[in-house]
Amino acid sequence: QVQLVESGGGSVQAGGSLRLSCAASGISVSANLMAWHRQAPGKQRERVASILRSGTTFYLDSVKGRFTISRDSDRNTVDLQMNSLKPEDTGVYYCASINTDSWGRGTQVTVSS
User: In this predicted model, what pLDDT tens digit does every residue of 66-85 receive, in sequence order?
Assistant: First the structure.
């Protein structure tokens, strides 16, 4: 059974940083396409960043240069480092294993101006 548990959300002022972490069990993060998505109030869920088995990463245009996705095979985690946060980054952030269509329950990120 695949389980993904997010942590690290919180409230921060614009310009600040947060680091989200996704702890996986039941799968290997190195053997799956892993991604972070977010959903703002009243908006559709969108993919923010993803990391392929090869290690290649992709980012939503609006977060390029500010967010970094990474994985730790030993800890079996996928992290999202978020810098220079903006109020429009506010939302619930979800970790997902795309291959297995597995999702975490999400962690709230709130950025105030």
Answer: 999 999 999 999 999 999 99
C-beta separation of 72 from 92 below 8 A: no
Give the three-state DSSP class for 55.
coil
pLDDT in tens, 44-71: 999 999 999 999 999 999 999 999 999 9
Count the residues in the chain: 113
In this structure, the number of other CB atoms found within 10 A of the CB of residue 25 comes to 10
* Calpha distance 60→73 (Å, rounded): 24
- AA identity, residue 76: N
Which residue spans within the chain are E strands per DSSP? Answer: 3-7, 10-13, 18-25, 34-39, 46-51, 57-59, 67-72, 77-82, 91-97, 102-103, 107-112
